[in-house]
């Protein structure tokens, strides 16, 4: 404080070891939308960020964007989308993408 400097810690406090990774790989995962691999990481970050934005601020504009996004993805994957289940659909798409690409 005397030198008017700040220290920023960049390391994470969470530590993972090989046992944790093996447990993650052993979980049974049901892939609902295998065609989701047609997207890339940037596309899925848009999905994730859009969902987070809506959760923080559930405005009509954010809801319309989620609806447009869900409709576009369902069209790309040839899936009939239920209007009431858009949030769950996007979460499942995101989960499937992570499971298949990691």
Q: Structural class, from secondary structure content?
A: mainly alpha
Helical content band: 55-70%
Strands, count: 0
> For the report, how would you describe the main beta sheet?
none
Describe what you observe in this structure.
The termini are far apart. The chain has a domain at 31-101. The model has no long low-confidence stretch (mean pLDDT 80). The protein is 57% helix and 0% strand. It has 102 residues and is mainly alpha-helical. The chain contains 4 helices and no strands. Helix 2 (41-56) packs antiparallel against helix 3 (60-76) and helix 2 packs antiparallel against helix 4.
Helix/strand layout:
Elements: H1 18-26, H2 41-56, H3 60-76, H4 86-101
Helix pairs in contact: 2-3, 2-4
Short description:
The chain has 102 residues and is mainly α.
Question: What attributes characterize this protein structure?
Answer:
mainly alpha; single chain; extended
């Amino acid at each position: 404080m005397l030198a008017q400097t700040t220290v920023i810690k960049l390391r994470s406090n969470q530590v993972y070891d090989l046992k944790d990774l093996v447990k993650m790989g052993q979980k049974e995962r049901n892939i609902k939308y295998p065609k989701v691999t047609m997207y890339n990481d940037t596309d899925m970050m848009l999905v994730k960020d859009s969902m987070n934005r809506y959760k923080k601020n559930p405005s009509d504009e954010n809801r319309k964007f989620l609806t447009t996004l869900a409709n576009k993805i369902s069209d790309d994957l040839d899936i009939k989308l239920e209007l009431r289940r858009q949030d769950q659909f996007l979460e499942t798409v995101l989960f499937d993408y992570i499971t298949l690409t990691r």
